[in-house]
Design brief:
Helix content: 25-40%
Shape: globular
Strand content: 5-15%
Radius of gyration: 23 Å
Largest sheet: 9 strands, mixed
Length: 483
């Protein structure tokens, strides 16, 4: 964390690397002390304690230690899931007319209101409404805070996906996971701070959704696949001495080059990446292998399901819980795409077929994740966020599809000091526009950081002549949903 203080204090400069400074000062005793701290076997301490962020980096007491982001790429229809609209149902098939909203797509001829084909019922002690699309989520609804008034910036997948991930609707900005890893540091030196559990589909916006951009490269996402080998090049060389020799050679070369540079952040990140990768070899294969989980737990998630899309998404959700236990700071799970040329939840047509298919794939594992975290005492310290980049229009040009919608849509949050069994915000009677407690994605980001003990206005990085932050110049903490 020392390099962060140096970079953000404009009165100080860094002309040599930290490693070179420690090697060359006080006859190398600083380097010797660092080696002891960096090696838990020498220091005699638990591995997860070595890279924990010092309390001085936190702005206030955190309610959560880690985040699991369940990204529903393409946009789940809010009026078919958690935001019932009886008026919409009663006007089904009639010409669509609505009040102007700067974020709404313009009215085009022939569009009609499209009522939900799924029935809504109240569930749990809270009596929150959930559609038949999500019967498993309905069983954990008392743990969820359903936000019905989120808005975006434009009805474009790529821009909205980047906005959800990075706080910018254009590329070249750090991901939310990268900011969190940077702000909190690694809790476990053997694992990266940010893991992407991918399901063979990269959301619109591409890998820019998960990149560290101008933050040090150590904070970008490490990809773990659902199928096949989870992580490339993760098997250690045989014999181990060969691997050790390669790492020592790379470290020597990088350190020598760093001594010639006035600003060696990138080189330092490269050295740290090598070290993390080597340490990952001892733990990642075991974390990805869920065969040691009880049959009851595997059945709870649905790892035993027959369909590949179903069981692999379930596998990634179970891995997420294991990574949380191991101390990873930020974990994102993407959805698989079962059909070509569209994002998983992007149903301009075939709404009944594809929304039902996506719900079947994700509903059981997501609910199982909430149940499993809760029974292990991890939900209170783990913030779970379920969100797409947008919602779907309450109107349609046909009779079985919805288009992009950003003037009011739904996400939910759970755990990590979030009040469960409540809704926040509201859209109008047709589900067109947020009319109560209107929020934007910067507010969501500010709230996530707040629950982790980070002030979104103070978590900054000097770049391009200004102090950059995840929320840019926007964002407020949604205190109304906090316990």
């Amino acid at each position: 964390m020392f390099d962060r203080v140096i970079r953000n204090d404009r009165t100080l400069t860094q002309e040599t690397s930290r490693r070179e400074f420690l090697r060359s000062s006080s006859m190398g005793f600083g380097w010797l002390a660092f080696a002891g701290l960096a090696n838990p076997l020498i220091a005699g301490a638990a591995p997860e304690s070595q890279w924990a962020s010092p309390q001085s980096t936190l702005n206030f007491a955190p309610r959560a230690k880690r985040v699991i982001f369940l990204f529903m790429d393409g946009g789940v229809s809010h009026v078919d899931s958690f935001d019932p609209k009886p008026e919409l149902t009663s006007l089904h098939g009639q010409p669509a007319k609505w009040k102007p909203d700067p974020l709404s797509q313009s009215v085009s001829a022939g569009r009609k209101w499209l009522g939900s084909p799924w029935k809504f019922q109240q569930h749990g002690e809270s009596g929150l409404w959930v559609s038949d699309l999500f019967p498993k989520a309905a069983k954990v609804i008392d743990d969820l805070c359903v936000i019905r008034s989120l808005t975006g910036e434009s009805p474009l997948h790529g821009a909205q996906s980047l906005l959800m991930h990075t706080g910018r609707s254009i590329a070249a900005a750090p991901s939310m996971g990268s900011w969190i890893s940077y702000g909190l540091g690694q809790e476990n030196e053997q694992l990266p701070g940010y893991v992407l559990l991918n399901n063979d589909w990269i959301p619109n916006g591409g890998f820019q959704n998960f990149a560290s951009s101008f933050l040090p490269a150590t904070h970008q996402a490490t990809l773990v696949r659902a199928k096949g080998t989870p992580v490339d090049n993760i098997t250690a060389a045989d014999p181990a001495s060969v691997q050790r020799a390669k790492l020592d050679f790379l470290r020597e070369q990088d350190s020598a080059f760093a001594r010639t540079q006035g600003d060696s952040d990138a080189i330092e990140s490269s050295i740290r990446n090598y070290e993390t990768a080597a340490q990952m070899q001892t733990v990642v294969p075991g974390l990805c292998d869920v065969s040691g989980e009880t049959a009851e737990t595997q059945k709870l998630y649905g790892v035993d399901r027959d369909n590949d899309f179903d069981k692999f998404y379930a596998l990634q959700c179970l891995r997420a819980r294991r990574l949380v236990e191991a101390g990873v700071r930020f974990i994102e799970i993407t959805c698989p795409s079962t059909h070509a040329n569209n994002s998983p939840w992007d149903q301009h047509g075939a709404l009944r077929l594809r929304h039902a298919e996506n719900a079947r794939i994700t509903d059981q594992p997501v609910a199982a994740l909430i149940i499993d975290l809760k029974r292990r005492g991890l939900l209170d310290e783990t913030l779970v966020v379920w969100a797409g980049e947008m919602g779907r229009t309450p109107h349609s040009s046909g009779d079985d599809g919805r288009d992009h919608h950003v003037s009011g849509y739904t996400i939910w949050m759970a755990g990590g000091g979030i009040r469960g069994g409540m809704t926040f915000g509201a859209t109008d009677e047709m589900g067109m526009s947020a009319v109560e407690n209107r929020l934007n994605i910067h507010d969501i980001h500010a709230t996530i950081l707040h629950q982790l003990g980070l002030d979104h206005e103070r978590l900054t990085f000097r770049f391009g002549g200004r102090d950059m932050r995840l929320t840019d110049v926007h964002g407020r903490v949604i205190h109304e949903i906090l316990t």
